[in-house]
Amino acid sequence: MIQRGDNYGITPIGSETNHVLRVEKGFISLGHEVDGKIEPIDLGLGWIIGKGKKDFIGKRAMELNRTSKLPRKELVGLVSGNPHIHFAEGSPLVASGDHLFVEGHVTASVWSEINQQYIALALLDDGMSR
Question: Which domain range does residue 7 map to?
C-alpha cells in the first residue's frame, strides 16, 4: 500500500515529524497548549471569535476571565542563545534568579532541523507582551 505513493514522491511520516512541523509553525495541539483555562485570545487566535455575534458558548466565562487583574498564560515561542539547550516539555519557566515563582511552562519542545537548534512553545504569563 505504501508503494502507491512512490510515483508521486509521497512518503509516510511519523507522529514525531508531525509534532516538529506543528511546533515550527506555532500550531496548537489539544492537551499541549489547550486546556480548560486557555482561550483563543491567549493563543493568538482572537480573530477566530465572531465579534459580531451577540452570544456564543463560553462568551460569559471569557468576559469574566478578561476582567481579572491576574496575568493570563499566553502562547509564545522559545529559542535559546545556545542551539544545543533542550527545553524539556513540562519544565517550569521562572524569572532569572527566581526559582520560587513559576511564570509558565514549556508545552512542546523539538529539535528543528531547518533552524539547527531546539525550539519550543510555552504558556507564559502575559507572554505576548514579553
Answer: 2-129
